[in-house]
Amino acid sequence: MDAGNRIQFTPLNGAHSETPLSYLLEIDDFKILLDCGWNDKLDLADIQPIVDRVPEIDAVLLSHSDTTHLGALPYLVGKKGLKAPVYATLPVHKMGQMYMYDHYLSRQAGEDQTAFDLDDVDAAFALITPLKYSQHVHLTASHGRSTSAAVTVTPYNAGHLLGGTLWKISKETEDVVYAVDFNHKKERHLNGTVLESFNRPSLLITDAFNAANRPPARAARDKELTDTVAKVLRGGGSVLIPIDTAGRVLELVLHLEQYWTVAKLASYKLVLLTNVAYNTMEFAKSHIEWMNDAISTTFDQTRTNAFKTRHLHLCHSVEELAGLGPGPKLVMASMQSLEVGPARELFVTWATNPRNLLLFPDMGQPNTLAREVMRCTAAAPQAPDAQRLHRQAHQAAPHAAPTLAVAMRQRVALVGEELARHNEVQAAEAAEAAAVR
What we know:
Elements: E1 7-13, E2 22-27, E3 30-34, H1 48-51, E4 59-61, H2 67-70, H3 73-78, E5 86-89, H4 90-108, H5 118-126, E6 128-131, E7 137-139, E8 151-157, E9 165-171, E10 174-179, E11 203-206, H6 218-234, E12 239-242, H7 249-262, E13 269-273, H8 277-286, H9 293-302, E14 312-315, H10 318-322, E15 329-333, H11 342-350, E16 357-360, H12 369-376, E17 390-392, H13 416-436
Parallel strand pairs: 3-4, 4-5, 5-6, 10-11, 12-15, 12-16, 13-14, 13-15
Antiparallel strand pairs: 1-2, 2-3, 7-8, 8-9, 9-10, 16-17
């Protein structure tokens, strides 16, 4: 580093573990929060290191739209007073909002959600300035501090999720590159990362979580998936795939939609089940310019939109799913962790049928029901591998698979004495609040 610039990097979370990502980058007096991830358990203790630094933060840079990268943003803004400007690409902004809506509605369906509410989500995402790839933004320090020169931030394609970002952070002659969860390979809907185009930054911040793992060839992985799905459906079973709300699920949708046509599986329902399924697919259809060259070129030349699906049914509740009728079906449902959401409900309902299949597209979050299921059924490998296909059919017979206790929560209407007591408490709280004013 030049003598005039001091650069300090502090991991708040996401170092030497599978915890959600959050880091503090200090360039002289300028302090940038790199991601503010949370997991689906919403344990406040997990994000206390971020909360402690909120008053110091001058800006927030978000790299991806999932909860692992931005899940704590509504809580930090709504409950802890974060007011720093936030920067993300347009897809990270919009899809991230879908993630947090889905998370709130899924949890609220079974219990009071106190970490944040929908107003907090809206307030948090209102702080975001959406950017295009390669768009430069000049930042200045807040909180009464000053820097000798502005810090410039620029987003580049990471290749992992729609709008996923590598951040180049520059001041004078120093370049810092923040590159986590990137993908070198071109996929059905995304181009590969541009990381290799960067020329010797002063500091490269990256992860090596899967560095020692060699993913299988895509053709072999895809064939394993489709062969397994077809066998289960034709055998009279249904397939549940716990998915993220609005991220890697887009790649899965394109793959399965194409396979449904080629394999002539129209007699089996292909379903996307989240609280925001319609909004997610509409956004994907209207932002193909963020996708790979093949999708953009096809649309420009023939006006064919890859996300205008023929076989995919969109459902927003388990009740809507039931309306599709009986019979084998493949359902992609949130949340991927099985902590909350329709995926958890379907898992409990379907797990006792030996014909059904629970299929995990990746390892998911640690210390969640999904990981516990993998552990109990010996489906998890010795080392985490986000690329390997994990699957496990859950047999009804006690000797065929271990028993796993799952707590289910749901809202029920209060009646009788419980309702009367609730109304009394509400009236007392309202009177107390009025007296304070």
